[in-house]
Amino acid sequence: MNHLLFAFSLTALLLPLTVPDRAARDHRRGAPRAAVGPGAYAAVFAAGVAVVRARTWWYTGVFSLVYGT
Predict the structure, then answer these.
(1) What is the rounded CA–CA span in Å between residue 14 and residue 20?
(2) Can you tell me the distance from the alpha carbon of 18 to that of 41, in angstroms, rounded to the nearest whole number?
(3) CA of 63: how far to CAs of 43, 48, 59, in Å?
(4) What is the C-alpha to C-alpha distance for residues 36 and 15, in angstroms, rounded to an integer?
(5) In this model, does residue 18 exceed pLDDT 80?
(6) What is the rounded distance in angstroms from the CA atom of residue 13 to the CA atom of residue 38?
(7) Residue 61: HSE in the Cβ half-sphere, 13 Å Cα cutoff
(8) CA–CA gap between residue 15 and residue 54 (Å, rounded)
(9) DSSP for 14-62?
């Protein structure tokens, strides 16, 4: 859980290095140029959260991300 802010900030890394500064600010032009779509990053992140919640459920019987913290 200490890395949640870091994980959300990684979406900025989806923009390729060759995008001009003005396109990086205009997400409508910058997002289609990304090598991996933002939806793919969100899906992998959501799958990771679901796996952690399933692990908590396996060991405690509670399907929660923050149970026991």
Answers:
(1) 14
(2) 20
(3) 19, 14, 10
(4) 9
(5) no
(6) 10
(7) 0
(8) 31
(9) GS-TTS-HHHHH-HHHHGGG-SS-HHHHHHHHHHHHHHHHHHHHHHHS-
- For 19, phi then psi, to 5°, come to -80, 130
Distance, in Å, from the CA atom of 27 to the CA atom of 31, rounded to the nearest integer, reads: 5
Q: Which residue bears the tokens 């859980």?
A: 1
Q: In whole angstroms, what is the distance from residue 14 CA to residue 16 CA? A: 6
pLDDT tens digits along 49-64: 999 999 999 999 898 8
Residue reference for tokens 């908590």:
56
